[in-house]
Each structure stands twice: as structure tokens, then as C-alpha cells.
Amino acid sequence: MSDPLLRMIALARPRGARFALGVLAGAVATASAVALLAVAAWLIATAAAQPPLTALSVAVVATRALGVTRGVARYLERLITHDAALRTLADVRVRVYERLAATEPVRRFRSGDLVTRLVGDTDATQDLLVRGLTPPAAALVTGAGVVALSTAVLVPGGVLLATGLLLGGLAVPLLAAAAGRGPGRRAAASRAELSTALVDAVHGAPDLQAFGAMDAAVARVEAADAALTRVARRDATLLGLGAGASALVAGLTLWGTLLLGVAAVDDLGTVGLAVLVLTALAAFEVVAPLPVVAARLGALRAAGARLFDVLDTPPAVMRRSAAPVLPASPGLRIRDLRVRYGPDEPWVLDGLDLDLPPGRRVAVVGPSGVGKSTLASVLFRFRDPDGGTVHLDGVDVTTQDADDVRAAIGGVPADPHVFDSTVRENLRLARPGATDGELAAVLDRVRLTGALAPAGGLDAETGPHGDRLSGGMRTRLALARALLADPRVLVLDEPTAHLDPETRDAVLADVLDATRGRTVVLITHDPAGLDELDEVVPLVAGGRTSRFAGPS
């Protein structure tokens, strides 16, 4: 099943019974509307002959009953289908978030584009199920009944009505769907481009302003908005043409039915003529929504393709089948580790070996581009190695749940995330039950207490992405969080980045003092201040160790 529309409909399979009930309610509502007009036509035409009131009582009651039934059935249809669609949408959102959580890091999507995929493209599932699934199914059920009724009254009239309904409910929607495929695809792309440009301009405003590039960023937003507006106008034109074509078919069918009825009035009688014509008039309520729905299918298909582009993204971390436990291998052991970022890309790490017995502290040093942060990503289980093994106490980490591995191997990544909350809540992510005294103590270890005091200490607001903190403060906050989590293996990827030399040396000394007796991998490009470590492992191009040095 490769068509995004079919895949989106398949997402509703667990609630198929509810949607079927909603279709039935919709068919009842539409049929009641048609029957209401047919009964009203019979009632008016019969009443013109002034029969006894008792002859009209059944029709009067039926008219009232059909009016009530129409309203109740329409309400039930909306209630049932929207409930099922919203529950399905909730399930889809959970699947999207779970997939994104299992695809670390999510670098293939721009932030603004990702927002569009999470909101607009995901919401397209609800639109398809509510507007693209129920109306056609209800139209099929009701249309067959209406054609049968008209055929019973006058066979040629039933045939003409069937032809008109097929044109208005099938031919016109198919043409609208074909015409809307291109605009729908362009609308999805334009909406994503506008969202990306807007998010980039807002989040990057300080840097854009500093480098004099704000005007260019605003021009990009305006251009994206203009492109989306042009597509929206074409879409509105298409919707108008579809509605007009449907109305034209309905009008021609009604006129044809009237002419056929007049020609056969001797057999039909005035009552039969009124019922036939007004039934044909009401019948097109069945297919009236379909051209609009069909014109939207192109946009819904494009949104579905973008949604499944996220859902089909292979996880960066897979749990492999269990491997045998290595005997007598406590601590962390890396053998022939190989990593690259694409089948045709060069090896970033190529044959790296590293042993870290419990309590050993090792620094991995080297210039940018030799694979230091890639090594950290493998240890954090942000990505799987393409070759080689990483064992913790003899167990291959790729055979374990990623969260379990991260509980044992934690630390500070190169770009730690700070949540838009207080310093206290950011720290409690590592240990929810920590007291304020414990939080204050870990802030002292990373020399962050004094810097945070003017802003409120533990109550200091960090801002979106930690924007209210300097780069050095964000790094030290992440370091404090890692120390608070107290993993068995502490991996620190450039923990003193963005710090001035004096603060860097002081923080590094505090970190080394706080990590005595535990296993530490310190990843840095700066070899200064590493004398207290047990070993220094320099990396060269290709991610190989060139030598081992250090006091050991």
C-alpha cells in the first residue's frame, strides 16, 4: 500500500466499526432530507385537491418525523465520525512523536518544516476521515435508494437521475481531483517553506540583525507567503469551478426530469410529477460535497506523503538480537568501532579500540572532524555503529533498550538541550526527587551558583532553548544535570566549551574532583588541564587512535 491516502485511511482501521456507524447515520440524515422533500411534494400536491384532513395526517406526521430524524441523524453522524477521527488523530500524533523520539537526532527536517509536519500534515488525517471518507460512502448508500425511488415512479426519470448523480458525484469529482493534484502538492510545499522561513527568521533574529541579514530573511518570508497565496487562489478557483460544474449538472438533470415528467404526466398524475421533480432536486444534496472533497485530495495526498516521510524514517537506534556476554569484561570495552553517515560517505570512525575499566578516566582529544562527537553519539545511543562493538560489562549495548543504556551511560552531549522552564525543573529531569539542597550543591560543583543568583538561583527562568543563559551557563547546567543523574559511565563532550580560560580550568578541576572513582570519558579538543586523567587518547583523521599517552 503505497498511496498516502490509502495509508491514511488504513490508520482508522481500529475504529472501522465507528466510522461505519457514522456513515450509516450520514446516509440516514441525507435520505431523510430527500424523503422529507418527496413527502412534502406529495403532501402539497395532494392537498391542492382538498381531500379529507385524515388522508393527509400520515404525511403530516411523516414530515415532522423526517425533519426530526434528519437533525438527529446529522448530529449523530458528526458526533460519531468526529470522535473516531479525533481518536485516530491522537493515535497518529503519538506514533509521530514516538518515531521522532526513536530517530535521534532529527536532523533531516528543518525545525519549521517539522512543525508543519507535526501539525498541519498530521491534521490532514482528520480532514480525510471526516470529509473524504464519510460523505462519499453515505452518498453511495443514499444515491442508490433515491435512484430506486425515482425509477419506481418513472423509469426514464430514474435513469436520467442515475446519470446525473454519476456525473455530479463521480465524473466532476474525478476531474476536480485530477486538477487539484498539482496545486495540492504545491500548497503543501509552500506551507512548509513559509513555516520554515518564519521560524528561522524568528529564532535567528538576533544573529540576523547582528549580521545585517534581517531584510533578506523577511524578504524570504514574504516570498514564501506570496507563493502560498497564489496557490490558495488557484485552489479557490478550482473549488469554485467544481461547485459550479456540480450545480450545472444538477440543473440540467432537474430540467431533464421535469421534461420527462411533463411528457408522462398522464400516467404519473400531478402528484407523481411533483414527487419525481422534487426528489430529483433533493437528490443532489447527496453528491454536493463531493467535488470540494475531491479537489482537496491533492493537498491531502501531499500532506500524507510528508506525514509518512516522518513515520517511515528508519530509527537511528535499533535493538538487535541478544549477543553472548563476554566473560570477565567489567567496564566499557570498544572494539573496531566504525561509523559513517552514508553508504558513500567516508568513515568518520574506522577501527577505534578503547578500554575503560570501572573507575578509569580517559580523555579523547583531537581536532574537529576526527570523530570525537560521533563517538559520544554512539555511547549515548543516539546512533548505532556501522561496524564493531560497544560492550558494557560484557553486554553488547545494541542488544539493550536505548533508555536502559542511557541510564548507565550518560553525560553531556555537544549541544545539550535546555528546556523552557526554571533551573530547578531542568535539574530535576535527572533526579525528580532531588531536594533543593542537593540541587544547590551540584550547582556549586560546576560554579554556577554565583552566575544564577541575580536571576533567582534555582527559580531562574532559562527561556526557550535556554536563551536566557549564556553558552557557558547552558553547558554547566547540563553538566550539573549529568552529575546529578550519576550514571555508571560519564561521557562529557566538550563540557568546558564557551568558557573563558580561567572558568574553564576551574570547572574542569571541579569536574575531575567530583568524578573521582567513576568511569569518565572526557571528549575535548583542548589538551590543557588533563594531567589528572588516567589516560589521554588522541584521535586522528578517520577516527583511529594514533597513540596512547598519559600518566595511567
Automatic annotation (TrEMBL):
GO terms for biological process: cell redox homeostasis; glutathione transmembrane transport. Keywords: ATP-binding, Membrane, Nucleotide-binding, Transmembrane, Transmembrane helix. It is found in: Cell membrane. Its main location: membrane. The chain crosses the membrane at residues 21-45, 51-69, 137-155, 161-180, 238-265, 271-293. GO terms for cellular component: plasma membrane. Residues 332-552 form the ABC transporter domain. It comes from the Bacteria. Residues 20-302 form the ABC transmembrane type-1 domain. It is a multi-pass membrane protein. PROSITE patterns: ABC_TM1F (PS50929), ABC_TRANSPORTER_1 (PS00211), ABC_TRANSPORTER_2 (PS50893). It holds the Pfam family ABC_membrane. Coiled coil: none annotated. GO terms for molecular function: ABC-type transporter activity; ATP binding; ATP hydrolysis activity; ATPase-coupled lipid transmembrane transporter activity. This is Thiol reductant ABC exporter subunit CydC. It comes from Pseudonocardia broussonetiae. The gene is cydC.
